[in-house]
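Example 3.2
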Amino acid sequence: MPRKVRVRKWRPGPRRALTFYEKLELAIGPGRDPQFADDEARRKAWEEHREVILAFVNKTTRPWAWWQFECEEAQDYTQGDAQLERLGVLTDEEKVRVAKWRARREQDSEGGDSCPAA
């Protein structure tokens, strides 16, 4: 009996999954052993895998590739989430987190006990 030949359907989306080291490079920037041939390859990988990389980093931060390829302003490491807030790019969830962190910092700076009593 002849075998039925199955043709894989093409699905839009990333061509292949990124390796851990490729994700890391897009998250923190190229190191001594670059995972991509050039900036154009990095940009293409960022565009194809943007959501994966954003999920790969902490909330209220942005990965290196976001700063490199999407933001017109250079990252100021001294500002942290304040720069993202000023740029207006924090999500509602991130705004809530930032508000909670600030309230906790304020409480700690006022000498409040940040740990519940045992």
